[in-house]
Amino acid sequence: xxxxxxxxxxxxxxxxxxxxxxxxxxxxxxxxxxxxxxxxxxxxxxxxxxxxxxxxxxxxxxxxxxxxxxxxxxxxxxxxxxxxxxxxxxxxxxxxxxxxxxxxxxxxxxxxxxxxxxxxxxxxxxxxxxxxxxxxxxxxxxxxxxxxxxxxxxxxxxxxxxxxxxxxxxxxxxxxxxxxxxxxxxxxxxxxxxxxxxxxxxxxxxxxxxxxxxxxxxxxxxxxxxxxxxxxxxxxxxxxxxxxxxxxxxxxxxxxxxxxxxxxxxxxxxxxxxxxxxxxxxxxxxxx
Amino acid sequence: xxxxxxxxxxxxxxxxxxxxxxxxxxxxxxxxxxxxxxxxxxxxxxxxxxxxxxxxxxxxxxxxxxxxxxxxxxxxxxxxxxxxxxxxxxxxxxxxxxxxxxxxxxxxxxxxxxxxxxxxxxxxxxxxxxxxxxxxxxxxxxxxxxxxxxxxxxxxxxxxxxxxxxxxxxxxxxxxxxxxxxxxxxxxxxxxxxxxxxxxxxxxxxxxxxxxxxxxxxxxxxxxxxxxxxxxxxxxxxxxxxxxxxxxxxxxxxxxxxxxxxxxxxxxxxxxxxxxxxxxxxxxxxxxxxxxxxxxxxxxxxxxxxxxxxxxxxxxxxxxxxxxxxxxxxxxxxxxxxxxxxxxxxxxxxxxxxxxxxxx
Lengths: 288, 360
Description:
The complex is a heterodimer. By secondary structure, chain A is mainly alpha-helical.
C-alpha cells in the first residue's frame, strides 16, 4: 500500500468514526443490552437466569398479541389513508400549482411541524373534546342538542396519526413528482388515456420510489408513536408502545419490556420486507 | 380534394402576448404539411391547439369536417409525436405501442398483431421486449412514431422530433420519415425550425413568424418565389443588399445598392422610384466568370476564401466597397483554378434576383 492510499484510508475512517460511534453507542450497544435483557427472567428463587419466558408471555396473554396485531393493522390503515390523501396534494403542488405558489404551499405544509407534536395533539383535543370548539359551534347552530365526545375512539386516533405523519409522505411524493416529465402525462392523454389510466399507468409507476419511502417512514412513525394514540385514543387505544411503556415504567419489568421492544422491531422489519416484496422493489433502490 | 384539417382565423393570446394571430389553413388528406419558423414564432402553440392541449382564444378548428373545439386531447383523432418523444420509461417497447390500443379496449390478440405489424413497418421487429433506455436515438424516434401510427390517426402531429438527433442520423431519418408517410398515407403536420427538414419532406410548407403565416406554398415555390422578405431570408441562403429603386422598366426594375452598384432585377412588390428595397440573390444564381454577359448584371470581386464543402462548396468574395458575397462553387472541376486572392467577375440574370419593399 502506498503512503497516499494509506493516508486516504485513514481519512476515510476518520470521517466514518462519528457515524460508527453514533450507531454503536446509541443503537447497537443498547440493543444488544436489550436483547440480553429480554432473554433473562427471574426464576423461582428470584435470580435472573437465561430464559424465553418473556417471549412466551407475549403469546400466552391474548391482550399482548391482540394489541400487537391491532397496532400493526392500524398502522397499515394509517399509511394507506395518508398515501391516499397525500398523493393528490403532492401532485397538485408539484405539477398543477404555479411556481410562485408552490413554495408557499410547502411552507403551509411545514408550518404545523414547527410546533411540537404534543402541542398539535392538544390542539386537536381542544377542538374535539366534549366541551370543545366543534361541539360549541354545533350546539350553537342547533345541529345537536347534547355534546358528543369525539375523542377517544379509533377513527379519531387514526385521523391524528394521519395528520401527524402526513408531511413525511407529502415531501418524498413532491420530490418524485417534480421529476415527472409533463410530456409523459400529455402523451398518455394524447394516446387516449383518461385521468384514471394515466394515474395508474404513468404517474404511480413513476412515483413508486417516493410512495415506498413515504410509506416506510409513515408506517414506522405510526407503529412507534406513543403520544398520539395515548392522548387521542385514550385508555382504549391499545397501542403496543403503551404496553412497552407500561412494562418499563409501571411494572418495572425491564426484561418483559425489552422483549416487547424486540418484537415490535421484528414486526416493522417484517412488514416492510413484505411490502417491498409485493411491490417488487428493493430497499437500495427506494433509498437511492 | 378531401380536407383533413381545416383551421380558420385561429387566435391564441397569453395575456397581452398574441402567440398565434389569425391563422387560417387547410391540410388535404394524405399530405405532408410543414410549419417552418424560428423558435418563439408560435408554431408549437398552434400544434398544441390542434392536439387539444391548448385552446384557441377565437377561431375554429375542424378535423374531417368535425368541430374540435372543446374536445379533449384523448378524444381527438390526432396523435402527437413529442419533441422529446415522451416514451414511457416504465414500459417496454411493445407496452408503449400497445398503450393507446389498450385504452381503446382492443382485445389482446389484435393488439399483439398490430404491435407486431407496426414494428415491422418501422423496421424494428425484434425490439418488442427491449426497455426504452436500451434503444438508440433513431430507434426511439421510430418507436415514438409507431406508437402514434398504430392508432391510425387522421392527422399525425410531429413537434421537431428530429431535433435531438445528430446530423447524419437526422439526414437519414428525414428520408425515412418521408418514405413512411407516403407508405401509410396518413396526413402529417410537421413542425420545425430547420428549413432543410421542411423542404425535403413536405408537400406544402407554411412559413410562420410572429404568430402569422407569411406564406404557404410548395417547397419549390417557397424557394424560388418567396412572398415576403422574411421568407426570402429564412428559407435557403441568400445574399442581401439594401438598395434604392432608380428606374422602372416593363417587367424589371433598376436599383442602386448602398455601395453604389447598379443592378436590374425583379420586384415582388409594387415600387416607385426612390423606394428603399431589400434585394435577395441566391448564391447558386451567380455565374462565375460568365462567357456570355449579355443581359446579365455584372460585378468585379476579390476571392476572400474558398469554402470547400463537397457539393455545397462556396466562394466567399468581397466587392470593392467591402461588401461580402457568397457564391456557389459547382464541383465540376471547371473552377478549380480559382484561388484565394484572385479577382473574378460575377454575373447574374435579372430574373434570379428579387426585391421587397424595406419594412421601416
